[in-house]
Specification:
With about 325 residues, the protein is an alpha/beta fold. The protein has nine helices and 13 strands. The strands form two sheets. It has a nine-stranded mixed beta sheet, sandwiched between helices. Helix 5 crosses helix 6, helix 7 packs antiparallel against helix 8 and helix 8 crosses helix 9. The chain is globular.
């Protein structure tokens, strides 16, 4: 794949394993394999919607790394020019314990570290970071070195160009404590034009889970847009020019709670690149998220444009 990506995501990649039944892992006998990780899923979601999407990450020098790289290229049409290989660390595994299926427990196998946390400047020296329409960064990228310094350098190169998006992506497994995460994430907010997170993630990043107050604190950093996910109450979009609206969710019977947020991200980015406003982008994101919530897998189950259009037209997900 060649050319300038429309969206670049940087972050976690893994082989995801999903039980076919709900309940504790001790009762599971059958698993389905897919590709996963927040940044990976967002890139896949955007590519599924027709965007030139590139992923920046690292895999292990092993069979799972080969599986991930070829899957991204051959099945998902994601640009893997900046997917490099670590010589000794293993490609991570992530098991989704559907216990319950609406809020699965993720069991990470990343010891002693995931290769994606070992990005160094040489891995991204030729990345066209200042030319892509969107640069998407999950907050976990700042949880350890050398990832933090490398990604910070990428942000300095980009210079807060629109749209530079921070996914607050709270994963307690990556941090010593909420306080430690806050001390790192909060000062990084002024590097981003758009910040997206749910109530818990806002509490970690800006010290409050009250949506309007969280949005105010994000906008005070100079961001142009704050997107606060409200679960079953929808998504609140607040912009620096005074727009503030809550976008209603689409009803769905959840099959798996994983991946919906990443589907939201991919559809949101696609809509922003299409030139629609942030509110409409969130509407399309909500539809995409509802579709994936009604399915088991993440990357493999990301929706196509006509599926999103159908949900918006019907006002609900039809399975």
């Amino acid at each position: 794949m060649s050319g300038i990506p429309e969206i670049i995501t940087v972050g976690r990649v893994s082989v995801d394993l999903y039980p076919t039944t709900e309940g504790p892992m001790r009762d599971v006998r059958t698993l389905q394999k897919s590709v996963g990780g927040t940044a990976t899923n967002v890139a896949v979601a955007a590519a599924r919607l027709g965007r030139r999407a590139a992923l920046v990450t690292k895999v292990g020098y092993d069979e799972f790394g080969d599986d991930v790289t070829h899957g991204l290229t051959d099945r998902f049409n994601v640009d893997t020019r900046w997917v490099s290989t670590h010589p000794t660390l293993k490609t991570p595994l992530a098991f989704a314990e559907l216990n319950p299926r609406t809020e699965p427990n993720i069991i990470f196998y990343r010891e002693p570290s995931g290769p994606d946390m070992e990005l160094v400047p040489e891995d991204v020296a030729d990345l066209p970071i200042d030319e892509a329409g969107i640069f998407w960064v999950p907050a976990t990228r700042f949880s350890n070195e050398p990832s933090m310094s490398t990604v910070t350098g990428m942000l300095h190169r980009r210079g807060r160009a629109a749209e530079t998006i921070l996914d607050l992506d709270w994963r307690y497994q990556f941090w010593d404590s909420e306080h430690a995460a806050h001390e790192v994430i909060n000062p990084m907010l002024d590097q981003f034009s758009v910040v997206i997170g749910n109530r818990d993630e806002c509490r970690v990043a800006v010290g409050t889970e009250v949506p309007n107050l969280a949005a105010d604190r994000i906008l005070e950093t100079g961001a142009t847009c704050a997107v606060i996910k409200l679960g079953g109450d929808g998504v609140m979009v607040a912009t620096a020019d005074g727009e503030r609206e809550t976008v209603a969710p689409y009803p769905v019977e959840a099959v798996c709670g994983l991946g919906a947020g990443d589907a939201f991200g991919g559809a949101f980015c696609d809509a922003v690149l299409a030139g629609v406003g942030f509110v409409e982008a969130a509407r399309r994101g909500n539809a995409a998220g509802a579709i994936v919530a009604a399915r088991l897998l993440c990357a493999d189950d990301m929706p196509y444009p006509d599926e999103i259009d159908q949900v918006i037209s019907d006002g609900k997900v039809t399975t």
